[in-house]
Amino acid sequence: MFPLDVGTVLAIGFAVAVIIVILKTARIVPQRTNFVVERLGRYNRTLDSGFHLLIPFIDKVAYQHTLKEEVIDVERQACVTRDNIQVGINGVLYIQVVDAHKASYGINDYRYAASQLAQTTMRSVIGQTDLDKTFEERARINEIVVQALDEAAAPWGIKVLRYEISDIELPMSIKDALEQQMRAERERRAAIAKSEGERQSMINVSEGHKQEVINLSEAEKQKQINEAEGRAREIELIAEATAEGLRKIAASIQQPGGQDAVSLRVAEQYVKEFGNLAKETNTLILPAQLADIGGAVAGLTEVLKAKPQQ
User: Fold this and answer.
1) Which residues, including other chains, have CB under 8 Å from residue 265's CB and lie 6 or more apart?
2) Which of 183, 307, 180 is nearest to 249 (CA)?
């Protein structure tokens, strides 16, 4: 080893002193961060992000604060609702430093203070709310807590952004009661739905019967109308055929030999009908002029002769 002379020692000492001075003088502040500088024990200034030079051994970075949003877990606490039910509530608090000077000198520990104030405010709000409302009005409760915390934390240089209830723990007896209530409510809804279904089913069946009766009556009505129209048409056709036949008979009578043919036809029918009458019954009523068939035929002939003259 080579012995160090006094000059070398002084040079090394000077280099170390320079390094220390540089470390004490130069400060690089990260993005979204503030450094609070004290000069001789008193607040001097707040350093924003970037490169800064300090006076060695006189200026000192006393506090460092991040300007990012911070998440604080609010521990579970016992709260009593307005209807005297004890519940355990824990939540999450979101805060942000907006003034590094106030956050440094306004309070000793703003994180702990904000957490404790959130618990106190939550107990107060829950004490004014019924148990049922604590589940239904979480958003309103969160807003009330945020508003109260923000007003109280303003002198501390922090901004309370939001508060969220993460969990509500109920006593076992209350859980059982709520489960029974929900079970009864579900059963009630199921019974109502079943009765509504049965009622609708009965309505549908009755509507079906009603429509069936209407359809049958309409079909019967149409059947009767069709039958009546058929009978009317039948009578009309028979009448027309009868009239046409009579017209042809009348025309035939006017032909030469027509009257003789008619007389012969009448005589044949006369004899035939009396023959049939004797076959059908044992009792036979005969007209007094039965033997005078020619006279009857002659009378009918006279009628046929006189008919065209009327």
Assistant:
1) none
2) 307
CB burial string 208-240: b at 16+ within 10 A, e below: eeeeeeeeeeeeeeeeeeeeeeeeeeeeeeeee
Reading the block at residue 133, the tokens are 């409302």
Tens digit of each residue's pLDDT, the chain (310 residues): 445 577 777 777 777 777 777 777 888 899 999 999 999 989 999 999 998 888 888 888 999 999 999 999 998 888 888 888 888 899 999 999 999 999 999 998 999 999 999 999 999 999 888 888 887 888 888 999 999 999 999 999 999 999 999 888 887 877 777 778 888 888 888 889 888 888 898 989 888 888 888 988 888 888 889 888 888 888 888 888 888 777 777 777 677 766 666 666 666 666 666 666 656 666 655 555 555 555 655 665 665 555 544 4
If you search the block for the tokens 């460092």, which residue do you land on? 64
Give the 3-state secondary structure of residue 35.
strand
CA distance 39 to 152: 30
Look at the block and give the residue holding tokens 């609702």: 81
3-state helix, strand, coil in the chain (%, to 5): 60, 20, 15
> Shortest CA distance to 76 belongs to which of 126, 40, 31, 42?
126
Looking at the DSSP bridge assignments, the partners of residue 158 are 97
Of 265, 270, 302, 264, the closest CA to residue 289 belongs to 270
Q: Which two tokens stand for residue 122?
A: 């939550």
Q: 233 has which bridge partners?
A: none
Token pair 């025309």 is found at: 251
Closest CA to 308 of 239, 255, 261: 255
Per-residue exposure over 2-16, b if at least 16 CB sit within 10 Å of its own CB, e if not: eeeeeeeeeeeeeee
Nearest alpha carbon to residue 165 among 95, 91, 80: 91
Give the Cβ contact number of residue 46 at 10 Å. Answer: 16
